[in-house]
Amino acid sequence: MFGKPKKAHQWRGVINEYFSRLDVDKSTPIITLGEGGTPLVPAPALAKLVGADRVYLKFEGMNPTGSFKDRGMTMAVSKAVGHGARAVICASTGNTSASAAAYAAAAGIKSVVLVPEGKITLGKLSQAVAHKAQILQVQGNFDDCLTLARDLSDNYPVHLVNSVNPDRIEGQKTAAFEVVDALGQGPDIHVLPVGNAGNYSAYFKGYQEDFKVRRIKKLPKMYGYQAEGSAPFVQGSPVKNPETIATAIRIGNPASWDLAQIAREKSQGKFGAVSDKEILWMHRFLSQELGVFVEPSSATGAAGLYKASKTGESFAGALIVVTVTGHGLKDPMWALKDEAGNEITPEAVSTNAAEVAERLGLA
Ligand code: AN7
Known about the structure:
Number of domains: 2
Number of helices: 14
Mean pLDDT: 97
CATH architecture of the largest domain: 3-Layer(aba) Sandwich
Structural class: alpha/beta
Helix content: 25-40%
Bound molecules: ligand AN7
């Protein structure tokens, strides 16, 4: 009645899906966990909130390790293995290390990760441990970790997989291709959170390539948002001691500074900053009104978009895509606090149906 079973279409990861558009060839060993192919989720409640025609969330928490980093890591680790590397190293606020550790495990090589002491979330740390990375907590911030990772990879036999490695940006540009494939056009505005600005630069690269081959008619405006205590692009210079609860983007000296400035200028985009409070408000809005659970830093783009609409920018008639970069389970503690910051503990009840119905307000 339902016909013969047919082979289900299986997404094959970004290198296989976009092979001809990436810097790879037949000799490149493809290390993949099936990354990419993430949902573009309609966000009518957010469109209404900001007065736009249509808003979509590119839900990057749906990648194998729960963040967009997997797109760049499949490329970086594949190329590293292709070059004969036996070990990779990265500095990380957490997601890069989780991804590097997983792809290194899949490749059967060693991973070394340098993280700022006490400043990465439990979910991310557990991933690096699970995938058997050699983890060192550095007495410094992310920027110090990156300096150290660059130094080690320059002088010792270990391959750097931070986004200063162009293979990372190359892999991450596939997210823009997917947006265009899904919409059949480019958005008017693309919004995302910014730390090192690797992803901001990568989306722009993807859109620029789509523009060159006429898959889109114009370049989307790139809007990048940072946390107020960690906003070097807004300040116009590096921030020495960045601070924000959004630990993923607690970065004061962005590695992709120049690329990001070019992307902002050529796309007629902008950078902005939002407070931790605004980030947490949007974090809750996305999970409660749209069913999309992200880590706080991932709500920064949407929070910036909302702030822009509140302060007078009109999005009437606009088609907007907002990238939400990492999954809520990476850092679940923020969902377990109410607006005043108090712990939320579900009520305990007996097994009596009448009593439970009454507690639920059903009786
Ligand atoms: C969820 O993992 O830098 O602007 O070391 O984890 O490309 O740096 C993470 C960054 C946004 C910012 N959202 O992206 C790391 C790291 C999440 C992130 C960013 C990060 P970039």
